[in-house]
Amino acid sequence: MARRKSKKKQQQESANAIGGLIIFGGIGFSYFAKSIAVGVVAVILGIIVFALISYSINQARINKLRRSGIAEIDKMTGDQFEHYLGQLFHLQGYNATVTQAQGDYGADLVLNKDGKRIVVQAKRYSKNVGLKAVQEVYGAIAHYKASAGWVVTNSRYTPQARTLARSNNVRLVDREELVEMILRVKESRK
């Protein structure tokens, strides 16, 4: 199964394609106009437009991250992150319970909504989250009699963690999805 490209990667690829079209269009324009000077001007204008588009995309991404508050999350302790997620899920209609810090049996939060129970392993990391988090939440599903297990991080996942999660039906919420979730909650509260 192919992995879906992130919005950031899709936007960068689109900007690169536009840049390439502009440059080649300028070269083609110079050929048809029979003037190298016109072609050079077209290429320069194309490069300027491409730079402005790239700058705009980057600024939009920076503003989105700033609005989400992900930089503050990156500074939290693990316990603070667990409580933050509890509040975030509560605002989405879940009955969220943060488990005890020690002996949590692989779940940092237990979510209940619409008769379904979900166990969540929270990982506030500065590096990629590996297999262990997926294994822990998968083990917690049976213990807490849950219907699903999620791992939520402010970071990203290793390829091995993604493979194991896919084969065990564990949902992985990475940095990009967490930012989107935060922004949706903030927007719904306006």
UniProtKB/TrEMBL annotation:
Q: Which residues cross the membrane?
A: 14-32, 38-57
Q: List the Gene3D superfamilies.
A: 3.40.1350.10
A GO molecular function annotation here is:
endonuclease activity
Q: Which residues form the Restriction endonuclease type IV Mrr domain?
A: 73-182
Identify the keywords attached in UniProt to this record, alphabetized: Endonuclease, Hydrolase, Membrane, Nuclease, Transmembrane, Transmembrane helix
Instruction: Report which superkingdom the organism of origin falls in.
Output: Bacteria
Listed InterPro entries: Restrct_endonuc-II-like, Restrct_endonuc_IV_Mrr, tRNA_endonuc-like_dom_sf, Type_IV_Methyl-Rstrct_Enzyme
A Pfam family name for this chain? Mrr_cat
Its name, as the record gives it, is Restriction endonuclease
